[in-house]
Amino acid sequence: MTEGAAGPQAKVRPFASGDIDWIVQRHGALYAEDQGFDASFEALVAEILADFMARDRRPVENGWIMEADGARLGCVFVVAEDDETARLRLMLVEPGARGQGVGQSLLETAIDHARSQGFTHMVLWTQEALHAAVRLYARNGFRLVESATGVHFGREIVNQTWQRAL
Predict the structure, then answer these.
(1) For residue 16, what is the domain's CATH number?
(2) N-acetyltransferase domain location, by residue (predicted)?
């Protein structure tokens, strides 16, 4: 395990099956509270994780949890989009851990992993309203390649696709 930026007690560890409920619940709760998303977003997160577990293509695809003193601070996943492109999925940082380097540590873990598995590009989906996440991605070499407004998860959002070379 590597030491995280949130402090010497913060560690990034591999995702384990016992993390599924937390990932689904926290995504659902935080996106409902912060973005006004309905339960269809939580269902999408559950579907993404079910697909990840069914495929079980580790080590090529993997996920990580950052935790400190037994509390989960955030998560991130890397899945194969195709043979050359990795997709960043389910990036989440708990509100109390934001601004402490948790997102940066998780993103670096994902990028380093994708690179080590031979991927040459990484893509991700986010939404325009997630300003801190968008700044994090831009700071780490991602560039906006597509933006479209649509109704998803019970509200209108601006979907964005970002990409970077590895």
Answers:
(1) 3.40.630.30
(2) 10-164
